[in-house]
Amino acid sequence: MNNNYTKQDMTAVRNLLKNRNIVLTQSKKVEEFEKKWSKWLKVKYSTFVNSGSSANYISISLLKVINKNKTKNEIIVPSLTWVSDVNSVIMNGFKPVFVDINLSNLSMNTKEVLKKINNKTLAVFITHAQGFNGLNDELINKLKQKKIHLIEDVCESHGAKFKNKKLGTYGLISNFSFYYAHHMTTIEGGMICTNNKKIYELSKILRSHGMVREAKNKKYEKKLINKYKDLSPQFIFLYSTLNFRNNEIAATFGINQLKNLDKNNQFRTKNFLLFLKNLDPKKYWINYDIHGSCNYAFPIILKTKNLKKRDFFEKQLFKNNIEFRRGNAGGGNQLRQPYLKDIIKLKNFKEFKISLCINKKFFRNISS
Ligand SMILES: Cc1ncc(COP(=O)(O)O)c(C=O)c1O
Fold this sequence. Notes:
By secondary structure, the protein is of the alpha/beta class. The protein has helices at 7-18, 28-41, 52-66, 83-91, 110-116, 137-145, 197-207, 218-227, 248-277, 307-319, 353-356, 360-364; strands spanning 45-49, 74-78, 95-99, 121-127, 149-153, 161-162, 165-166, 173-177, 190-194. The strands form two sheets. A seven-stranded mixed beta sheet has the order 1-9-8-5-4-2-3, with helices on both faces. A two-stranded antiparallel sheet has the order 6-7. α6 (137-145) links the parallel β4 and β5. The protein starts with 6 loop residues before the first helix and ends with a helix.
């Protein structure tokens, strides 16, 4: 990715900086961006934070705060995702339960998710990978039926849809990233979205040191001020968290970049289809479910497991100045990553044959 800041972005930031009395830490522009983002996504509330990983982390902290049944301590995650999806689960004291992906959308396999659900399952944390929709009616209905929270990571899929509704509007909470390489950018940044007022207010508290006043709910604040009479009313820290706030410059980028998001996404989809049409189906996997997808990258899966071919392919991309990431972004298949070695002891690797590419026969047979 390069050159994704427009002249208009720069002008908007310059205009912001012209005002000598301006507050540059989180203030009015952040609020304006949150409102505009909510309107674009069609959710009630959004909380702007300093990265997509922070959005992931706060979302799982939110689950910890609202979870009344402490025996529910498992969260289902995909094996192929970004590292912060797993770490936010671990760092909040939950157990990540891994599920393999589908080749059709690089998202969790619904049948496998349903198999892993038990009475300890608190939530399913789905990743809509690389712009593909990972949802289906079976998953949504079963989770509703079983009262299991759905959290959507949409950090790679801004504008993608399931059934004419944008991804990020189905779960109790959803996350977006505005890192430089994504569909739109705020330099660094992330968003936590929800239709639930309580979740929204808590997300603002958790974004900012756990401070009660951040919720801007006077009734709630008064109640806590009365409860903790010996504390300074302005500085009641309710939960253990850190500072995940963003700032006015990033929000100004966000407000301006959002104006072009839909238009740019149309170009992305056109390009994606053009690349897909030109891939040789004998050599590469092309059977993606592109319904509602909005991709910011182009996945290339070789049909044969041949490391020499892969290395040759990577060399060609490199030589032609085409940016690429092996095995998806974020480390791809998390089960291969050293940070998990002492945390998760996997007994049955066969369960993850798609993420791990371990079944040669399977890869020989995916010609259809
Ligand atoms: C699926 C997914 N989740 C979370 C993140 C983390 O976002 P950030 O880089 O803004 O921390 C990323 C980053 O690219 C991502 O792809």
